Amino acid sequence: MDSKPGSKVSDGIDAPLWMFWKRRRYIVVFMAFLGFFNVYSLRVNLSVAIVAMTENRTVHYDNGTVGYEQYFDWSSSLQGYVLSSFFYGYILTPFLGGFISNRFGGNYVFGVGIGTTAVLTLLTPLAAKAGVAVLLTIRIVEGIFEGVTFPCIHAVWSRWAPPGERTRMASIAFAGNYAGTVVAMPLSGILANAWGWESVFYVFGVIGCVWFMAWMFFVKTSPEVDKWISRDEKEFILAALGRTEGEQQQVRHPWKGILTSVAVWALVVSHFSENWGFYTLLTQLPTFLKDAMHFELEKTGFVSAVPYLVMGILLFVSGYLADWCQLKGYLTTTQVRRYFNCGAFLAQTVFMIVGAFILEPGPTITCITIAVGLGAFAWSGFAVNHLDLSPKSAGVLMGISNTFATIPGIVSPIITGYITSNKSGDEWKTVFYIAAGIYLVGCVVYWFGVSGELQPWSIEAQEQREQEKQQTKPIESLAYSNKVSVEDEI
Questions:
Q1: Does residue 212 lie within any of the structural domains?
Q2: 199, burial (CB in 10 Å: exposed 0-12, middle 13-18, buried 19+)
Q3: Domain that holds residue 282
Q4: Which end of the chain is least crowded, N or C, by CB within 10 Å?
């Protein structure tokens, strides 16, 4: 396949790759991009809204006096629990999402997960006013439904993504995470200032509901059941994946092989490490900018979005570059995963330490932006690695790794809340040093444990061995017949 920018590919469609609307698989990618846009906009809006919900507001009373009030008088530790509550539910369903997506179709589970979260987001203002316990419950249930999204999308790629386009398709879709963050953070600040903190949840909830209807209409389980796909493109995808039309995929996961695989556990550690730094900043960056850098609410939203804008752009670059290095034969798949992932982690370690050590608005925000942005290259490592090890088990593998990788979303905001109880700069330094240390651990473990090859325990490897046995049987039978004939003649 020619992988040069703007080139045509051998799928029978006379159009360059950038004309994504002419290829059904890239329509799926585009809709998945918008889906992840909603995943993260629905997740991060509270990170900005909580600043407006808990800040001291100047209030002019009828008697002419001036005072200060808060919508919600929550301590920093309680805010940490509110921000992490989403992940209490989220950690429960990644594994389940990977399992049921293989059975019912990743597209259905992906859509329902995000659509339900959008509806619950619309109820968040009512929940907050009813009490912190009700708000925590709503956020936990949101997490339960969003927890299925990442494993389900791997089930979608296992049926739609040719191996030579796998990294770029997944990376483009995952870029929606950061597009959602880039839009949601500043827009949440604007909405909160203009129409009150409640408007943050209403706007993003409605956007999520509209996307859900479009996804369910346009995206199908696989090329075989998509009525809009061209015959040439369908045959191209099936041939690239080694499937035939009408083939039923009966998936029985090799649990012993999965749970004893060094490559799987290296992937789990890498996913955990990336998410620790990512979730720390995702949930706490607006608060850090307000408390330690003394930014106003509206500015915290805009500044918080900058690192994710850089990461979203670099995801397109890293995904294409990873596929290009493989297709040109410059690097093996294992080398691509190792160099991209560990190079990113090492750079993130350095820039988190430097940013925390300096702790000045300009240099620190620059270091944070570089650290978060370079995480795009890690996503071309661990985030696609599941599909390398076993495409048919990729949803389950993502479910396992994402379950462990959700722990930082629960633990990090709580730890940060306790560490930064006095809101001092030195306390925030400790938060960043912890994140840097975890990046470094992930770098070392993934470097030595990573594999980009189909694993011996995988379903695909077992099928290949079975096919080889079937092919050798006629040869052995013919050899035996010839031997008998010779002996008879003698």
A1: yes
A2: middle
A3: 251-472
A4: C
